[in-house]
Structure formats: C-alpha cells, structure tokens
Predict the structure.
Amino acid sequence: MDAERRTTMYLPAIMGKRDLSRVFSRELPKYFTADEVRLILSEELRQKNYKAYFLCEFLWNTGLRVSEALSVRVRDIDIRARAMRVKTLKRKNHVRVLPLRPEFIGEVAVWINQFGLKRDDRLFRMNRQTAHYHVKLACEKAGIKDDRTHPHTLRHAFSINCILQGVPVTVLKEWLGHRDITKTLIYTNILAHDTRAFMENVRF
C-alpha cells in the first residue's frame, strides 16, 4: 500500500485530488530519527547541561513550536491527569490539550521541583535565542552538526515518530495545533522513506 492510500485511510472525509497532490509534492521536512534523538538525550547531557537536556526532551515529547514551549506555565500542566494545555500561537484564541506519557510527566515534575517553580512561573526561563543555542549545543554534543540543529527539527521528529507508530493523522493534527490537515499530511511522506530498508531485503 503506497503512502497516499495509507494516509487517506485516516481521514474523516475524502480529500480532493488537488489537495493530495499538493501534499505529496512538497519537500520532506528535515527531522531526527528516534536513534538520533536518543543520542541527543544522553545521560552525559543530562548531567552536564540539564537545561539543554530537558528542553530537547520537552520538544521531543510534545511536538510544540519553541515559542509555544516557552509560553507554557506550571499551571498549564496537570500532573495527575497527565495532560498539558497549550495556547496555539498560530491560531487566535485556540487552546489545545496534549496528553503526556507517564515517564515524561515524571521528568516534568523533577524539573519543576529542581528549580522551585511556582504555579504562575513559566516552565522555561529563557528566550528563543537561548533555546536555539541549547538545542544546537545538544545536537553538536551528539555529533549532529548539519542544518538540522534547530528546535523545529524536534517538532518534525515528534510528528514522524507518531506517524510511524500508527497515530492517526487526524489526532496528530490536533496535537500539533494545525488548522489545515494538509500541513499534517506532509509527514506521511516519510513512511515510504523509513520503510525502504525492508523492501531492499525482499527477494522476488
């Protein structure tokens, strides 16, 4: 089954051929593989630069835009419900609720306690420039020194990781805060690329 047919199985309604053609003709987004993210989130980075480590961990687990991540306050996170409210900065008056994995919510609690953050405090006390610096530094420590050393690459990595593990496109659209589902569909193009290794081992 090709990427386009597999993608349409997740859609609530039939899309026009023109919309699908536009999606599948777009350039693939730059991203990190799960193995590369594991290299970035090393124990050494955690011990030596916990701020860089947690920022990368946060972006990898939530898929937030860096501006959205920097706007999150402690009160937006519900530890018991394992969920987080996020103000979608590219959509006026739009707030989405993002579920959080049990393992990650524990890391969030550690971060809050370590820095003594209060209910109204921002989770990250840094600006965009500092956030970019931390991600770039973390990537370079992992041996990644190309043009992907950017916070948005972790958003792409989150999206593709979800798609590859079967998260429906309609669900991912809500998690990412996209207004238009065609923006989310671009990630399904990766399916053909990440499964190519299987075909190379098939004998006919």
User: Anything to note?
Assistant: The chain has one domain: 3-197. Strands lie at 77-78, 83-87, 95-99. The first helix runs from residue 3 to 8. Residues 61 and 104 are 7 Å apart (CA to CA).
